[in-house]
């Protein structure tokens, strides 16, 4: 491992799973390319790295090293929920992480160690080696606020959050959120997922600073509330939006979607994607397909079934054209969203996708599936008002007519125009936050200076 002794050096623990890995990789690139850090990415592994992971890692600049920890071995690791699987993999990798720390601190001055929320157990390893720890929250400030308040809420709230008679409203939140819309682990307090989440967020205050992937014009009230002295939180650094970057010339258009978009009118296409982990039931997928057809809208989308991803396009009153791919979808969503032909985005409301849509100024149809996505959907639709949301029937199914209606509303109604205009305003605000004397640029500079002086 070749290291530049002149540059301050930081280590970042990359949580397994592409949805967790990409935001941390993008943070590493920002610190390496714009603030002159040398970065070592430490990667716990459950099995061989996926093609998507290899693609991301192989494209890293020379100032970012990578170290794979030995694969963990546990009989029940592959039978549990993916979130629990990732957390257990990190726990089982802690002895190997300590070995890497011994090697690093014996040869260089390690200025900082960064983890995400799922990796918070590793903060204690940094403390052991007297390395300054930081947390990068790749979700919203609303999620961070809930996380920091959770130890107190766990003590004071009686019964299940999903059964609360009144919605929850924490300091700085612009709107209250129903208990049933809080993130998945909070829906059943008897589960391992709830206890694991609680143990992780209790460690957040071990950090010397918490970075959050948002910006002041997006969630300023929540961020200011988190900085209030009475809560005794670590310093909060809103440094977003940090999203996946890279020249489109580095990507082969295997699906044909980008080429197809080139021939569509400006703002005429609805992009449909449920992210790297989102799947629908057969009945819901059928209703979605029929609803898309019924809307008469030009569609470019990504569907996922049985582990196979598929990009597809549909012209108005035309036939679907499908192109199966294997790992070629990485980075494609951002390219589609930034294309001038794209005018709307039907999304699961994952925070990575949300920030990509904001950066491109694309209004949303909110269709949350899991994790904290229901929280995001509430904020996007009821507070920021940059999204429309279809309503499910009594069985929880969103019917084709409702899907067609909300698509037409977003793409062609006066309400849709108002949503589009608000999203364009957010795009401008996001650009300002990261340039010149913008709020995120200032926070990044303060953070980098603090890290370099450790």
From TrEMBL:
<dbReference type="Pfam" id="PF00201">
    <property type="entry name" value="UDPGT"/>
</dbReference>
<keyword id="KW-0808">Transferase</keyword>
<protein>
    <submittedName>
        <fullName>Hydroquinone glucosyltransferase</fullName>
    </submittedName>
</protein>
<dbReference type="InterPro" id="IPR002213">
    <property type="entry name" value="UDP_glucos_trans"/>
</dbReference>
<keyword id="KW-0328">Glycosyltransferase</keyword>
<comment type="similarity">
    <text>Belongs to the UDP-glycosyltransferase family.</text>
</comment>
<dbReference type="GO" id="GO:0008194">
    <property type="term" value="F:UDP-glycosyltransferase activity"/>
</dbReference>
């Amino acid at each position: 491992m070749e290291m530049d002794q002149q540059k301050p050096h930081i280590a970042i623990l990359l949580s397994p799973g592409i949805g967790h890995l990409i935001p941390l990789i993008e943070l590493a690139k920002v610190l390496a390319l714009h603030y002159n850090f040398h970065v070592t990415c430490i990667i716990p592994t459950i099995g061989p790295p996926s093609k998507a992971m290899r693609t991301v890692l192989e494209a890293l600049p020379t100032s970012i090293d990578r170290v794979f920890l030995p694969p963990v071995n546990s009989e029940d690791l592959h039978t549990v929920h993916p979130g629990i699987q990732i957390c257990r993999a990190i726990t089982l990798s802690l002895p190997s992480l300590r070995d890497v720390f011994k090697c690093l601190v014996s040869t260089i001055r390690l200025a900082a160690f960064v983890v995400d929320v799922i990796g918070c157990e590793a903060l204690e390893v940094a403390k052991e080696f007297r390395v300054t720890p930081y947390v990068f929250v790749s979700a919203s400030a609303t999620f961070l606020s809930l996380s920091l308040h959770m130890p107190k809420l766990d003590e004071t709230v009686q019964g299940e959050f999903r059964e609360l008679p009144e919605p929850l409203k924490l300091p700085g939140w612009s709107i209250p959120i129903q208990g049933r819309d809080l993130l998945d682990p909070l829906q059943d307090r008897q589960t391992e997922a709830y206890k694991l989440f609680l143990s992780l967020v209790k460690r957040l205050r071990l950090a010397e600073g918490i970075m959050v992937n948002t910006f002041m014009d997006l969630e300023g009230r929540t961020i200011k509330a988190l900085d209030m002295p009475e809560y005794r939180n670590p310093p909060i650094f809103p440094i977003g939006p940090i999203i996946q970057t890279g020249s489109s010339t580095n990507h082969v258009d295997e699906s044909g979607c980008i080429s197809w978009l080139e021939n569509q009118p400006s703002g005429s296409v609805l992009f449909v994607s449920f992210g790297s982990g989102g799947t629908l039931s057969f009945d819901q997928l059928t209703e979605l397909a029929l609803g898309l057809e019924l809307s008469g809208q030009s569609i470019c989308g990504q569907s996922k079934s049985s582990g196979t991803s598929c990009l597809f396009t549909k012209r108005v009153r035309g036939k679907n054209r499908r192109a199966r791919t294997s790992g070629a979808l990485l980075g494609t969503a951002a390219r589609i969203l930034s294309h001038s032909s794209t005018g709307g985005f039907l999304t699961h409301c994952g925070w990575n996708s949300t920030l990509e849509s904001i950066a491109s100024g694309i209004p949303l149809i909110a269709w949350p599936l899991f994790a904290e996505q229901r929280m995001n959907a509430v904020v996007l639709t009821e507070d920021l008002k940059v999204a429309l949301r279809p309503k499910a029937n009594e069985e929880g199914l969103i019917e084709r007519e409702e899907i067609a209606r909300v698509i037409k509303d977003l793409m062609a109604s006066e309400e849709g125009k108002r949503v589009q205009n608000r999203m364009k305003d957010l795009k401008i605000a996001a650009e300002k936050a990261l340039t010149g004397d913008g709020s995120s640029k200032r926070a990044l500079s303060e953070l980098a200076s603090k890290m370099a002086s450790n």
